[in-house]
Structures are given as C-alpha cells and as structure tokens.
Records
---
Amino acid sequence: MPRYELCVILKAMQRPETAAVLRRTVETLLERGAVVRSLESLGERRLPYKISKHDSRHTHGGYFSVDFHASPKIVSELLDHLERDIDVLRPTLLKKDPELSQAQCCGAQKKKSKY
C-alpha cells in the first residue's frame, strides 16, 4: 500500500469539537482499510485568504497532518467524504515518495582504483 499524507484545514473550533472531527476523520480512514502512522497538529493560524465553505466565511483554521498507508482505490472516495464534512475547510492529499535507501540518497559509488 502506498504512503499518503492528508493535510486538512479545519474551521476554528474549541478543543473538544476539534478532537471529535479528527477522531471522525481517522475512523473514516480506518474503516476504509488504511493504516494510520501519525497525526500531527500544526497549530491554529489565520488563513491566507477567506474561505467560503458550507455558507460560512472563515478567516482562521486549524492545520493538521495525517500520515497513513492506504489502497489507491479509496483516495477519491476519501476526498469526496472530506469535501462533504462541514467542519473541514480544505482537504489536501499527497502521495509520499518511497523511502530512499542510504546508498541512493548519498550517491555512494564504488571507489575506482588508481590502476
């Protein structure tokens, strides 16, 4: 299964409501067979521009990142589900590159002999 990173911007809410939205999002991933590796809060910030979503205009939001492995078949279904969620302002799904081995990363080469 490929590795993905889900970056979501949630509307500004109190901590219990934010936790409920994150729990709902992670449960959605798990129901579809994903393996969640990590959930990271990137903090609450002022949005770079006003976002109109579900008949409301938002100026602040909470930024979160979810790292997970999942089948490529669930990607469009997951994004459709998140677009319909009234608490999610902007879902973005990125496919992460596979980890490079140390030899590929550092450009390790065989030493050439002088002769």
---
Amino acid sequence: MARLSEHGIRLSSMSPSFLNSNSTSHTWPFSAVAELIDNASDPGVSAKQIWIDVVEEAGQRCLTFTDNGSGMTPNKLHKMLR
C-alpha cells in the first residue's frame, strides 16, 4: 500500500514528462482558472459554490480553489495523479 498524506490521501509520484506536459497545457493563467471552475460544474460533481482564496505557502502567495461538489474518493484522486 502507498504511503498516506497527513489527510489520509495516498501519495502519488509523477514523472517529469507528465509535469511538463501538464504545465504547458494552459498557456494563459486564466484558462487554468476557467478549467478548474468548469470541472466543478461537471456532471456528477454538481458544485453549487466555488471559493477562491489567497494563501501563503513557503513564503509564496498561492491561489486555492475549493468547491462544495461531491469530491473524489482517495482512490480516484490517486488514479488521477498517477
């Protein structure tokens, strides 16, 4: 069994080629934001609200996106990130 994060989610590893292809799929920052919002309204997710916040992580300001949709099981999340 894979190691678990502090929140009980199985940790995944990604190859550098996946990270590179994923990072270049959105050439404009707002297209990535639009996709996150679009994903929240996908069938089966049915989020009614989306929150966008700014947090500080390791001295850097970051955007966080949270919705009240149905979410993913830890297993589904692990498969998506694999």
---
Amino acid sequence: MSGVWIFDKNGVARLITNPTRESFEQKEPPYPGTATAPGARPRVLVYLPANHVIRSYSELEQRLTELGWSRYHNSSRPDLLQFHRSENSAHLISLPKNFSDFKILHMFDIVVKNRSFFEVRDVA
C-alpha cells in the first residue's frame, strides 16, 4: 500500500495512491457523472453519432435503446441499473443506481460493448 495518507479536519485519513496537487485539494467530483478520483482528470461519456455528452441515465438509456439494448430488471440487485442485448446474449451492462456514482469503469464498459458509438473524453 504505497501513497500518501491525508488527514482531514475531522481526523479521518484517506490514502492517495498517485498524489498530485489537485488530489490534495479535491474531495468530491466537480462534475456529477464524471470519473474523478482524487488527482484524476474529469472524464465524460460521449455519444459519437451526435457528439453529445451523456449527462443522465435517461439520456444514456435512450441511446442504448436505439442500439438494441433493453433494461434488465433484476430484483436481487435493486442497487443496479442493468441493460442487456437480448435474452440469448451474455452481454450485460451494470451501472450504479445513482448517476453521481457513475465512474470511468462503467464508461469503459459501455464503450467496449458499443465501440463505434461511445467514447470517453476529458472534460474540456
């Protein structure tokens, strides 16, 4: 476990594995729905045909539906939003229920499964 331990005003410690100046100043992501670990550059998911930044799950669901994905209702995992290609396909996209928890891992999962339609970009 290498990195730098930072203590906040309340005495709570957190480990920063790849420290930068920004990682010491930033605790919360500045843009909801962007992947921003401490010190990371904010990223957004872009729908390429329209060059449109996805800013909500309703926008994402609309685009995925256009590409043949449908909502998969899993009662054993109510904390997730899930999409699948078809009943016979093993392709499944699992996302956190809250869009503010949407991270770079989820963005790249969407990109890998829809290569020519989505892209992850740095926030301009």
---
Amino acid sequence: MPDEELIDIKFRLYDGSDIGPFRYSSASTVDMLKQRIVSDWPKGKTIVPKAVTEIKLISSGKILENNKTVGQCKIPYGEVPGGVIIMHVVVQPSLAKTKTGNYIFILTNCSICMNSKQNQFMCC
C-alpha cells in the first residue's frame, strides 16, 4: 500500500495574517480543516469564529464543501511541487448576515462581496 499523500496548507485570514502551515493527509475533510482553524484562531483578532459553521474556506476562488477531502479540493495546475497551498478563510458570524443574504468582508486589503444565494464572490 503506497504512502498517503501529505499536503501543506496555510490559512489566510481577513487581515492578511496566516494560520499555519500545517501538513494534512489528502483524506482529511474540509470540516477537519475548519475545526483546526477555530481551535488555532489567533488571540486579539476583532473577528473571531465561535463555531465551524461560521467559517467558509476558499481555494482557487471556490467555496469548499465540508464533506470534500483535501485531495478532492486540490487544484493541480495551481500548485508548485513541495509548495504550500493557501486557502482563504471567511468568517460569517450569524449577526453579519444581511436581509439580502450578502456578506461583506475584507481579504488581504481587498473588499469582496459574496452573494450567498449564488455562492459567488465579486469585487465591490
């Protein structure tokens, strides 16, 4: 049986800081990554997720589904062998939801809007 592939991932937060990198098995689920993010969230941040349900992970512009594995989410053309995958973290506290279902957050000095009904991100 061949060794399971290990993937290095770091998580980019709304202010441009990072959590990680950490090494994950390709069989690890997105939900497991989110649990790690909540438990390792840096102290002193103005926005703090209270639960895994308040986090969205984005890789290559796509929102990752909780039941998908790291191996399924990997984008082969965007990776460098031996490199670290960067996933963006969006925190959506329950109070941040607006009547229209839109969320606004800051991601590395860029304002981005998310239309939750269409699962799309756009500059705003």
